[in-house]
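Key idea: predict the complex, not the pieces.
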Amino acid sequence: MEDLKYCYKYPHPAVTADCVIFGFDGVSIKVLLIQRGIEPYKDRWAFPGGFVRMDESVEECAKRELFEETGLKSASVEQFYTFSDVNRDPRERVITVAHYALVKISEVCGGDDAARAQWFSFDELPPLAFDHDRILRVALTKIKERICFEPIGFELLPEVFTMPELQNLYEAILGVKFDRRNFYSKMRKLEILTQVGERPAGTSSRIPILYRFNPTKYAELKNRGFRLEF
Amino acid sequence: MEDLKYCYKYPHPAVTADCVIFGFDGVSIKVLLIQRGIEPYKDRWAFPGGFVRMDESVEECAKRELFEETGLKSASVEQFYTFSDVNRDPRERVITVAHYALVKISEVCGGDDAARAQWFSFDELPPLAFDHDRILRVALTKIKERICFEPIGFELLPEVFTMPELQNLYEAILGVKFDRRNFYSKMRKLEILTQVGERPAGTSSRIPILYRFNPTKYAELKNRGFRLEF
DNA sequence: ACAAAAGTGTTAGGCCTACACCCATGA
DNA sequence: TCATGGGTGTAGGCCTAACACTTTTGT
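Result:
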């Protein structure tokens, strides 16, 4: 008991930051999980995360843990809910501030740190540690809410992408199907897409046109907020 | 030092729950503050709130503290952000989960507990304790986001209200002016308002028509979500 | 008598939705 | 040659935004 050296007049909960990391492979949404190496829930899959240090905010903690456990250096990690059920951790009272981030799936391929990290799609999810299944459900809800008002979708796509890919992304997140023609014109109206290169005139209607997004317009739209009526 | 009886292997932050309580007096938005009786920030105004106990979630804590300090028993206290800057409390590391609630201003009039509680409008705010001014700004942002998608506004109004009052409420929260005629028809289209009583025919165009809201339609709309294009 | 507050309806424009056809490729 | 995937444009309906007049009351 000699190592219990941090003492308080009243009981204090432990506080952690967890990261729900979403990716997109062109077809379906993926989530990044880490296989736990220690008890409790040893060998179960869980979100990257860990205990908040006394010299960092929970957001800083989330970014640090994310980097340590997956090698990801994502600028936009954002908290979305704090889970505080009394018995959510068998060790002691732990309150977790849950964050999410949208990343390009290619960014997390390499790295030895990421040995235990793996992308899962929703129809092949393993059982999760702690209350992480609940955290995932809430994260999904929040993402759905956001995607209609901020062009967050693009953070999930590679630099260059096709219109069908973009549509797949929206359909995968929102769980609905759109009319291709309406989706195209809606996106064009936003004026954040720039066509990449030229399609040799008349030579192909089968290979999709490539786009990248216009960073200026994109940032502007993101600040101003927008309204996607899906 | 004998009373430092809660000891841990690693340092733990303290965790509090704070409540930003919004009210509406028919003209402007008010916020409920409590004058602190103890250091730090003694005599400064702050949001109701306090330390999370080990046998309650942060939401339960928020409700409990709200009741203890203001006599309010509000069903719908909702967390909106967790503030964790390292030095936000001079005593020790304190992370606070901030909540908000919308209440009818009449519900908090009586009660001795509320002796130190007082409603303030935004143009006469006193200096706030801790980082509560920042918390207030974030709360306002979140409320603005919500009011366009959930009919939360009605929770701020008395049972029976007039259309101008309702419009004032929306204008006060969103900080913009609406065309009266467009606002009226938009509200009518939602079909959640029921006219109260009868206006003696032809006898008055100066006193406003009274409405209450239809709880069934209101709940339905709240679940389904809606879209107010202001 | 005049200013201020409350009530009401119409029109034009923009956005959303639904929908059909052509071209190219690969089986 | 046929099925599949990609690209494009149009017409109708709904919602939004702009806008004017009448009544009443209080000063």
